Amino acid sequence: MYKLLIRPILFSFDPEKVHYFTFSLIRNLSKIPGISSLFKLIYNINDKRLETEVFGLKFKNRVGLAAGFDKDATLYKELSNFGFGFIEIGTVTPKGQEGNPKKRIFRLVEDSAIINRMGFNNGGVLEAVERLKKNNGVLIGGNIGKNKLTPNEDATSDYLICFDALFDYVDYFVVNVSSPNTPNLRELQEKEPLKQLLQTLQNQNLVMPKQKPILLKIAPDLTDSQLLDIIDIVKETKIAGVIATNTTLSREGLHSENKIETGGMSGKPLKNRSTEVIRFLSEKSNKAFPIIGVGGIHSAKDAIEKLEAGASLIQLYTGFIYEGPGLIKEINKAILKKL
């Protein structure tokens, strides 16, 4: 029903405008008595066998919503009704910022992909905190970044501000240095600045009464040598794990007219590369740390491939947009069949 009726209507409008329209629609529908329960009835699978413990947290299932969809933590409660085991909010920055000029999201329908150059548009970390104070049971990841105008040499202070502000309101953290849409941000993936950033956050974490897992989100465009550096950094800083991968700058094999647009590409064309990165990290590290797999998951088969490559959890974004909320249930059914 989603792909036949709903998606063609949504895809006839501007991607960014329809995103906010859909948010408003879901929020308003969820206020109607019984609708949230109906969503849960349709899309949730409540089976103890789906539960898993990763980096000390108990997830009701392995399927999460990736960062970037609910940047400002405005709809995490309603989105959880579609069956997600966890929701990652953000990327949030210390100060609110508009992001890059519009138009900045482009559908590549022929390729089942999206190109975005949003640029960390968000209302600032404190706005997200106010909304997260109302959380009642949704497992939340907090994806943190730096403001566009903050130079890289001062980036650590931006990440610390977000870390401290969110600490009491999220279950785990994600350090985003891999978005291609903030100038020079990916330079922070180089070994020494990245190690310094992660160690500073980990030092802050260690003085807290109870530590929170810190993960690093990496780009799919890293070389094998850079991925080996990532493994070393994770071991040295003792962070909890890695999210593989963010969007790609590659346009290899694309057919849609919009492939000429700048920004990060997500969706089906990213599937194989993100799985390669997961497998490389898992094998070369001897499964030393958990990996959350994201990138190109449009079917239950795609999800199982990521898990078999070494991912402990997976996340959806573009696949959720193209395939609809039924995809979450399909993946959880497939996982149960594999048990």
TrEMBL record:
GO biological process, one term: 'de novo' pyrimidine nucleobase biosynthetic process
Binding site for FMN: 67-71, 91, 143, 176, 217, 245, 267, 296, 317-318
SUPFAM superfamilies: FMN-linked oxidoreductases
CDD domains, sorted: DHOD_2_like
PROSITE patterns per the UniProt record, alphabetical: DHODEHASE_2
Reactions mediated catalytically: (S)-dihydroorotate + a quinone = orotate + a quinol
Pathway in which the depicted protein is active: Pyrimidine metabolism; UMP biosynthesis via de novo pathway; orotate from (S)-dihydroorotate (quinone route): step 1/1
Cofactor(s) listed: FMN
Record membrane topology: Peripheral membrane protein
Binding site for substrate: 71, 116-120, 176, 181, 246-247
Residues in Dihydroorotate dehydrogenase catalytic domain copies: 50-339
Cofactor: how bound: Binds 1 FMN per subunit.
Signal peptide stretch: none
Enzyme class: oxidoreductase
Annotated catalytic residues: 179 (nucleophile)
GO cellular component, one term: cytoplasm
Localization of this protein: Cell membrane; Membrane
GO MF annotation list: dihydroorotate dehydrogenase (quinone) activity
Keywords associated with the record: Cell membrane, Flavoprotein, FMN, Membrane, Oxidoreductase, Pyrimidine biosynthesis
EC numbers for this chain: 1.3.5.2
InterPro entries linked to this entry: Aldolase_TIM, DHO_dehydrogenase, Dihydroorotate_DH_1_2, Dihydroorotate_DH_2, Dihydroorotate_DH_cat, Dihydroorotate_DH_CS
Family statement: Belongs to the dihydroorotate dehydrogenase family. Type 2 subfamily.
Function: Catalyzes the conversion of dihydroorotate to orotate with quinone as electron acceptor.
Oligomeric form and interacting partners: Monomer.
PANTHER family, per the entry: DIHYDROOROTATE DEHYDROGENASE (QUINONE), MITOCHONDRIAL, DIHYDROOROTATE DEHYDROGENASE (QUINONE), MITOCHONDRIAL-RELATED
Protein name (Swiss-Prot/TrEMBL): Dihydroorotate dehydrogenase (quinone)
Native organism: Flavobacterium soyangense
